[in-house]
Amino acid sequence: MRAVALSLVALAACLFPAAGLADTAPKPAAETQVPAEHADWTRLLKTYVKASSDGITRVDYAGLAASQKDRSALDAYIERFADADLSAKTDANFAAWANLYNAVTVRHIVERYPVKSIRDGYLTGPWKEVKVQAGGSEVSLDAIEHKIMRKIWGTPEVHYAINCASYSCPNLPAKAWEAATLKQDLDAAARAYINHPRGVTVTSRGLNVSEIYNWFEADFGGSKDKVVAHLLQYAEPELAAKIRANPKIVRYQYDWSLNDAAKLKKTVKP
C-alpha cells in the first residue's frame, strides 16, 4: 500500500476512532466539501443496473461501455472526489466512500469488458492495483475497503455497501447511497442479502453461508456464534426459525462470476 494512502488513513483513524454509523456529530467544515449530491451516479445506476427475478441485480456493462457520453459522466463523477475532504466520520462520508468504491469498480470492469470475472487476469484480484485520487491522495480499492471504511467505521454494514462486481456480492443498488437514507438503505441491503441463498442456505447438516462471513468474521462479532446472531437480526421469520433449528455453519460459499446483465439476456427464451 502506498505510503500516502496510509498517511491519510492514519490521520483519519486517529481523529475518528472506529464505532457505529453517525455516532459522532457531523463537522460542518468537512460536510461542505464533500460531494453532497450523487445524482449523476444515481442516473447511471438507474440506467445500467438491472433487477432480476432471482433477486440479484446485474449491470449492463456492455451498454455502458458503448456509451461514450455516460463513460465520460462516470469519469466526471469519480473526479469530484479527488480533493474532497473525506476524513470526518459522518454518514455523508460513508456514503461518499461507498459510492466511489462502486463507481470505480464499475469503471474498471467497463474498461476491461468483456470479462467473466473481476479477478480475470489477476492472481488474486485487482483491488490493490486499481487506484483513484480521493481525499487529496491516491488510494486503491483495497485501501478504501480495509484501511478507510472498515477501519474508521468498523461496522458490518460496510460489507453490504460495496459491490465487487460478482454474483455472490451484496447487490449493487439502483441508486446512490445518501446520508439522509443511509441507515434504512443499509438495513434493506443486509436483509436482501441474508434472505437470499447466496447469503444463507439452510441444509440438513447446517448452514451454508457466504464467504464474507468467513473472511470478515471479526467484523461480525469475531466468532461463528456471533455471525449467526448477526444473520438472525435480518432473517425473515421462516428463515430465522430454520437457522435456530440448526445454527451451525458447515460451509462457506462464493461465486466470483461477473454480475453481468448479458447473462440475463441469454436465459430469456425467444
Helices and strands in order:
Layout: H1 3-15, H2 28-31, H3 39-48, E1 49-50, E2 58-59, H4 61-66, H5 68-79, H6 91-112, E3 131-134, E4 137-140, H7 141-153, H8 158-161, H9 182-194, E5 200-202, E6 207-210, H10 212-215, H11 224-234, H12 237-245, E7 249-253, H13 261-267
Parallel strand pairs: 6-7
Antiparallel strand pairs: 1-2, 3-4, 5-6
Helix pairs in contact: 1-7, 5-6, 6-7, 11-12
Summarize the structure.
47% of the residues lie in helices and 9% in strands. The protein has 270 residues and is mainly alpha-helical. The chain starts with a helix and ends with a helix.
Structural class: mainly alpha
Nearest-integer average pLDDT: 88
Low-confidence stretches: 1-20, 22-34
Spatial extent as radius of gyration: 18 Å
Tertiary shape: globular
Query: In this structure, how is the largest beta sheet organized?
Result: 3 strands, mixed
Descriptive report:
With 270 residues, this protein is mostly helical. It has one domain. The protein is 47% helix and 9% strand. It has 13 helices and 7 strands. The chain has a 3-stranded mixed β-sheet with strand order 5-6-7. Helix 5 (68-79) packs antiparallel against helix 6 (91-112). It is globular. The model is unreliable at 1-20 and 22-34 (pLDDT under 50).
